[in-house]
DNA sequence: TAGTGTTTTTGATAAATGTCAAAGGAAAAG
DNA sequence: CTTTTCCTTTGACATTTATCAAAAACACTA
């Protein structure tokens, strides 16, 4: 008798780092929902509390907030990675971060409350959670040291080197605020090659 | 018969968030080492791989690195919090971060390899690990948005408000690089009150 | 193809911050 | 108490980046 298992890229992403038992795997799948969304869809609207963790199977999301009337991109999230409104999910408090999709995307949603239950019941899922958060932390460290003492030009070149496809997929206005500079400055940096 | 349990502030710090069983507690204690260090002691020297997670019971540490000959403070760590050279511990690769003590301190050291074993054996300790990392991540988020689009003055006032005692305990030269500015600029910001 | 809206570039100028050098001040050492 | 060292402030100037306004390039639609 065959056991048909749909291939889910989610598990391909985490399996090199965390071993997930078959039981845990199906427990996870039971709380995960897969959706197709169009470009421009808002996953987390302004004022809403982010109650899910999202895994992006395909597509591209942007986490942003408005500060002094300016739209500031905090994070881009591409294929095979996780996103959520971090402080909101952890402290369960609304914050001003929104998440929108910049491309038609395939998203897996996991309700945070369900995930907490799985953390209780399955040690390996708790480990997966730790792994995901840790990875994110390492990533944040790199961004922090970028912003702390690199010039705008260094930051741009860094991005160009580490994430060249992002510049193809995202408009410069969004990239510039991600780098912590204005659009005009980014344009000038690009012109003086 | 009395069971004498020494009070360990470590557990006071985490217990509001993570419930640690007595078994796990003693397992943790068995791999934790408490030390007194003088001011100026170097926990993680240049080129060394950080193989421990440190919990600061008393005192103050500074994580820093040298970039273009300049000493850059990445993080301060005060009483009842954790520190380690993040990328080094996770990826187990040497990096250029050093950790030194700015005051005489009481430090609990946990070897990373031992901790990994405990993660395997004790679900609640794994949860504790997830909790610590998550907390750190929330904290990093705040710093990131500070650095991304706030002026030097805003950042200073922020620090003054959120962490006033740090300014009493640490010299301005170290604070300034933490804020991502030069010492002269910080001095001028302070003078124009 | 012309027309409309959006994104990117360019220009002129202002503001913020860095750099280098030196002078004060405070704290530690003799 | 004096000397030495370290920390902080001040000054003059250079550089980077922001701001505001407009032009140019591009993309989409009728």
UniProtKB/TrEMBL annotation, chains A, B:
SUPFAM superfamilies: cAMP-binding domain-like
Organism superkingdom: Bacteria
CDD domains: CAP_ED
UniProt xrefs under InterPro entries: cNMP-bd_dom, cNMP-bd_dom_sf, RmlC-like_jellyroll
Domain spans labelled Cyclic nucleotide-binding: 16-59
Pfam families: cNMP_binding (PF00027)
Full protein name: Crp/Fnr family transcriptional regulator
Organism: Flavobacterium rakeshii
């Amino acid at each position: 008798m065959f056991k048909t298992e749909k291939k889910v890229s989610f598990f391909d992403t985490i399996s090199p780092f965390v071993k997930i038992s078959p039981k845990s795997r199906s427990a996870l799948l039971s709380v995960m929902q897969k959706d197709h969304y169009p470009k421009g869809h808002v996953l987390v609207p302004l004022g809403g509390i982010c109650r899910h963790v999202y895994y992006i199977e395909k597509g591209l999301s942007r986490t942003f907030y408005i500060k002094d009337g300016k739209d500031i991109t905090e994070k881009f999230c591409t294929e095979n990675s996780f996103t959520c409104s971090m402080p909101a999910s952890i402290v369960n408090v609304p914050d001003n971060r929104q998440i929108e999709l910049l491309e038609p995307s395939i998203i897996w949603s996991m309700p945070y409350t369900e995930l907490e239950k799985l953390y209780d019941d399955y040690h390996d899922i708790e480990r997966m959670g730790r792994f995901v958060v840790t990875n994110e932390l390492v990533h944040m460290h790199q961004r922090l040291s970028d912003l702390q003492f690199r010039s705008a030009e260094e930051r741009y070149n860094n991005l160009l080197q580490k994430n060249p496809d992002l510049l193809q997929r995202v408009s410069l206005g969004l990239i510039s605020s991600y780098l912590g500079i204005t659009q005009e400055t980014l344009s000038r940096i690009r012109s003086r090659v």
